Amino acid sequence: MSPLEIVGQIVLRFLPVWIGLAAIFVPSILFRRRLGPYGKLMENRVGQIGLGLVLFWVLAAFFADLIITSNPLDQVSGMKNALPGTAIPDRPGAFYLLGGDNLARDVFSRMVMGSRTVLAIAPAATLFAYMAGFMLGLPAGYFGGRFDTVFSFAANLVLAFPVILLFYLLVTPEIRASGIPILAAAILFLFPIAFFVLLIGARFSADPHKLVLYLGITLVLGLWVYSGLAFNADPLGVFAMDPNRLNIFVSVVFVNMPVVFRIVRGLAMEIRTRDYIAAAQTRGESSWYIMLWEILPNARGPLIVDFCLRIGYTTILLGTLGFFGLGVSPESPDWGTTINDGRKLLSVYPHPALPPALALMSLVLGLNLLADGLREQALKD
Amino acid sequence: MGWFLLKRVGLMLLTAFCLTFIVFALTNLQPNLEKMAKTLVNTRMSDEEVARWLTRYGYEQPVLVRYGEWLGVMPGWTGSDENGKPIGRCLNPDIAPEDAPRFCGVLQGNLGYSTVFKAPVKAIIAERLALTGWLMLWVMIVMVPTALIIGVLAGMREGSRLDRGLSIFSIATTATPEYVSGVVFISVLASSAVGLQWFKGSAASAMEHMTFENFTLPVLTMALYGMGYIARMTRASMAEVMTAQFIRTAHLKGLSFGTVVVRHALRNALIAPFTVIMLQFPWLLTGVVIVESLFGYKGFGWTLVRAADNNDIELLLSCSLVAVVIVLLTQLISDIGYVYLNPRMRVA
């Protein structure tokens, strides 16, 4: 296949993604005036490109089964380090669009499948880090005092660790054997439940009927997911997380948590001096109501921007973990692992390492551009 | 200033103390110790043999006691091996057991013995750190001026086309971690597949003899990732300064744009980036590990990976100690520097 044909084929394979992108972008641009802040983003070129890149990978991960040309784990004899566009011997009309890696697997399919691993972990891990950051950072900033001193010290402690050292200490089979990840997960995964319980509790404390109903729903759902994710003991078997992935997940949340804590704490300290907080205090609102329903919504601008950036940073962290072969199975098609596999023969066969590297970069770039677009919009208002 | 310094140093020592204890506890978890015993003696040891070995070599004491020994505030353990010969933490074949010191930990300048490199940890660390020092030096020489120039150029006329272009460039570099840019650089500039081969894809030869050919790619790879962040901070600070009253006054006095930027804005705009550059060190440390592994440059980062992969406890502990001290020292310098540079900041 000529280079042009390869590009054409790849573009064609991504057809579901293009359709999905069109289905999202055309109405968004047409109705941007009626879509509020989201529509405003559509008027910002940088934000648009960023959103496009992010959505591209989200859709690619969603439609991965339709896009891939071969099974990402299949090894085809004779395709070891095959150059891009090589035809598969036994399957007429089938190609390794981006060549084969050193175990004769399809680089293109692995790259597409790799987006699933990243997008399954990065946004969720960032979200959990945010929940924990809210639950600790809001009281630390709002009350100050000893609670603040202790947790600020702990946050600085974690931040003084070089990330890579922390990963080498936390993501090992020995740590998994010791049960620390499960313990950490048991604590970390309580934060989201506590967050929603307090959120609802503070809002509906005057309305016992709604309070009981909403709290009941939250607790049932929350504890169901909790049992599955933290202890792998979901009675219905819907939510499950294998120990490797749990280890990675917990470590990534742990690394992000102190940074989020500091941001939230700083915002809470700033906002608590505003007049509407004093008004709420005078009304006799509870502290958690003020923190979750007064401070948090007013801090959303910087938090949303940072959330985007942080997903990108988490993606980079996951890549780093894969690059050092930590936690993931060697078969895994995630981008970091594939880059690591490909780098050994880089100066002779660069094609297995380049696609995942560029894929990772484009996703992070998309998130950073999106954050930049959002920031610019926020500054304009 | 004296009180401020004292408080900072005290907090720093407390942090270092906590961090090393955490690392110590994590590396000395029971499964880690068992793995180490098996790699050191015999992979097919039975569980009882492992337990006996660990007891004989002082690993069965409580973690706090052993941390004290490592730190040098508790006397080192002593015992005897299977032949009845005296062994102990502070004993070594060169001196008679009676003359050996009772305490031998970090405070006595003893960092232990590396099981991977079969050499004293102190010598290894010193040698590797020197190699990494060169890498860092060149990274700083390339990264800091470039980032500052990009930031100042982008920030001096906010919203201009130059600003847009440079900002996109900075965003792109922060989105490109070392393992991506390194892979791209090697594939494009050093591989036989593309055929340019301007540089070498390995920096192993740079350890003895640094040349433009073998050292450019690692330095560039590392500098690129950190550059964007510093540039963006500089830009933000520069843009803020450019809207200040005294800049308007300088404009109204009839000074040229160049003079205003260089003589009035620059100094004020560079205070914030100074802190950022200093706080960049912990981040660079991760970069060092990635770049040194990727390019085969056997410095500090490479040593850390070897130590962690082989569960070389004492080497890993010393690596973390060095890393933590570097991070905390740069934080301290950044705090002090900030106070000195910024006349508006006065320490009570």
TrEMBL record, chain A:
Main location: membrane
Domain ABC transmembrane type-1, chain residue ranges per copy: 115-371
PANTHER family per record: OLIGOPEPTIDE TRANSPORT SYSTEM PERMEASE PROTEIN APPC, PEPTIDE ABC TRANSPORTER PERMEASE PROTEIN
Organism: Dongia sedimenti
Compartments where found: Cell membrane
Protein family per UniProt: Belongs to the binding-protein-dependent transport system permease family.
Sequence intervals crossing the membrane: 6-31, 51-69, 118-138, 150-171, 177-199, 211-231, 246-264, 307-328, 353-371
Topology relative to the membrane: Multi-pass membrane protein
Lineage summary: Bacteria, Pseudomonadati, Pseudomonadota, Alphaproteobacteria, Rhodospirillales
Protein name in the entry: ABC transporter permease
Keywords assigned: Cell membrane, Membrane, Transmembrane, Transmembrane helix, Transport
Domain of life, per lineage: Bacteria
